[in-house]
Amino acid sequence: MYEVDARLDAALSAMPEEKIAVLESPIEDLPLSLRARNALHSLGCTTLRDTLATDLSAARGVGNKTLAEVRTALRSAGFPHPALDEPLDTEIRSLNRSLDRIQSRITKALQAVAKEIAVVQKRIRKRMEPAAPAASRPAPEVIQNWPERTSRAAPRDGEEP
Question: Which of 75, 80, 98, 141 has a CA positioned 20 to 30 A from the CA of residue 67?
């Protein structure tokens, strides 16, 4: 019996000392940065239970990096925070809606470009059609007094002012 206890003690002492987190564990047991710990302390969180009971996503002064760090630390300790995981799902849904809107806009823009291309192609085809015979073409208009004088320059010899 003593031999079994000695082996068990030797095995336990050889293992790295890892703290097992429980709900009443202080937040110092979590692998958090000083900034994250201070943010939790400022919200009144001293234990994991306090942290899990607090809605950190709505807390003022707690940014996205701190939320992600706390979320990761809680998950690694075996305590997923439902209020922190919910915004992640909401963000994914929001991102998906944004991508749908972007895809819709791109589709509309491509359709408009395709219409413009069709119009230009139609114009090009019309210009490439063989010219109609001279009899069916309308006579060009005669422009009198071409070019018109638009400036007030001095009259030439023989012209009236």
Answer: 98
The verdict on pTM exceeding 0.70 is no
Q: Any idea what DSSP says for residue 47? A: B
Mean pLDDT calculated for residue range 89-98: 79
Q: What is the pLDDT of residues 10-31, one digit of tens each?
A: 655 554 445 566 778 888 888 8
> What are the structure tokens assigned to 81, written together?
């925070």
Domain count for the chain, please give it.
1
Alpha-carbon span 30 to 52, nearest angstrom: 13
Report d(CA 88, CA 66) in Å as an integer: 14
Q: Could you tell me if 81 and 56 are in contact, meaning their C-beta atoms sit under 8 angstroms apart? A: yes
Q: Is 148 part of a structural domain of the chain? A: no
Q: How many Å apart are CA 154 and CA 157, to the nearest integer?
A: 9
What was the pLDDT predicted at 154? 57
